[in-house]
Amino acid sequence: MTLDPATFRAVLGRLASGVSVITLAGNDGRDHGITVTALCSLSIDPPLLLACVDRAATVYPHLAAASHFAVNLLSYEQEALSRRFAETREDRFDGVAFERGGSGIALLDHALAHIECSMWAHHDGGDHTVFVGHVTHAAARDGQPLVYYLGRYRDLRP
Q: Which helix (H) or strand (E) segment is 155 a member of?
């Protein structure tokens, strides 16, 4: 039995996902980033997380070669930032406020949390690659998350 892609997307669209931006420094000396919703914790000891990225993404070759990356968990006020990093464009960081983390990776201002990782492993996952990060530093602030559900951005404010 083969499941058609439209049905698969429709079913998984009912899984509410937090929205994050993965940032990294490429071998070209530039900052790179991509919006992701396929992100979750993997292990507490050692602290590991996984993120799934489409191999067709423009940032993919930089991420596949990276030794470190960061995950920026977006707040509900950052929908425009999520859209920006989801687009195929060279100037994703133009005018975007950020600070550098301990590994030199861009950490986006006003994110709900920053998670800095060293690359632990990556595995084939169909048209995506599953990247496993070893968490080396994490920090959070209070606020409401940006959520993606049924093809739209949502927030959890009452």
A: strand 152-155
pLDDT of residue 158: 72
Tokens 């201002």 appear where? Answer: 109
Domains of the chain: 16-151 (2.30.110.10)
C-alpha pair distances (Å), 3 with each of 17, 49, 112, 133: 22, 28, 36, 31
Alpha helices in 38-151 (DSSP H): 60-65, 79-86
3-state secondary structure of 8: helix
C-alpha 59/C-alpha 22 separation (Å) is: 10
C-beta of residue 62 within 8 angstroms of C-beta of residue 27: yes
Read off the pLDDT of each residue in 77-99 and give the average, rounded to a whole number: 94
The yes-or-no verdict on residue 132 having pLDDT over 80 is yes
Instruction: Please state, in angstroms and rounded to a whole number, the distance separating the CA atoms of residues 18 and 71.
Output: 12
Write the DSSP assignment of 42-54 as a string of letters: EETTTTEEEEEEE
8-state DSSP, 151: T
> Where residue 2 falls among pLDDT bands split at 50, 70, 90?
confident
- Weakest-pLDDT range from 9-13, 46-50, 71-75, 114-118: 9-13
